[in-house]
Amino acid sequence: MTIRRKSLIAGLLLALMLLGALAMPSPSAMKPPANGVYAVLAEGGQAQAGKAAVVLPYQGLDGKGELREIALDTSDFVPLLLTGPPVALKEQDNRLTVEVQLQKKQAAAFEKFTGAHLGQEVAVVAGGEIVSVVKVRSVISDGKALITGRGGENAKELMRKLSQ
Fold first, then answer.
1. Please, what sign has the CA dihedral across residues 28, 39, 162, 160?
2. Residue burial 91-112, b: 16+ Cβ < 10 Å; e: rest
3. Are residues 119 and 45 in the same domain?
4. Same domain for 3 and 16?
5. Strand, helix or coil at 11?
C-alpha cells in the first residue's frame, strides 16, 4: 500500500471515530433526571423535535401495568424539593397515598406548571424512575401533592426515593 493510500485510510478511520464520538450521548445526557414532576412530551419514546427530552420506561403503579416508554421534557419540570419527609396516608383499600409538601419556591413554580398543563399528562420522577403518570385535573396552588394508589412496600420505596 502506498503512503498516500495509508494516509487516506487513517484519515477516514479518524473521521469515523470522531463521528461516532459525536453521536454518542454525553455523560450528562445519560444522567438520570432529578426528582421532579415533568411534562410528558409523548408516549412510545417519540420526543418532539427541538425539545430537551429523556425517555424512560414506565410500567404503571406497582410495576404491574403494560410497559410503556415515556418521553419527558427535561426543560419543563418542577423539582421535588420538599419541606420535610413524605407522609404515607392509608386509603380504604389498604393502599397508601404518599403526600409531599413542596418548598415555597417550588410550590409557586408547581402552581404555574399545573396551570400550564391542565388536561395533560405529567410524570413524577423519583430516584431516576417514573413512579407515576397522571393527568393534571386542577391547578395546585398550595404545593401539596398526593401520589395515590401505592401498595405498602411500593409506597415505602417511593418515600425512600423522595427523601434522598
1. negative
2. eeeebbebebbbbeebbebbbe
3. yes
4. yes
5. helix
> How many structural domains compose the chain?
2
Q: How many residues does the chain have?
A: 164
pLDDT at 95: 77
> Would the pTM of this model clear 0.90, i.e. be above it?
no
Asked if 161 and 124 touch (Cβ cutoff 8 Å), the reply is no
Give the range of the structural domain holding residue 40, as residue numbers without chain letter. 32-163
Phi, psi of 5 (to 5 degrees): -65, -40
Same domain, 27 and 102: no
The CA-atom distances, in angstroms, between 123 and each of 15, 78, 112, 164 are 40, 11, 16, 18
What are the mean pLDDT values of the chain's consecutive 10-residue runs (164 residues total)?
Answer: 56 50 44 90 65 83 76 93 90 81 95 96 91 90 83 76 80
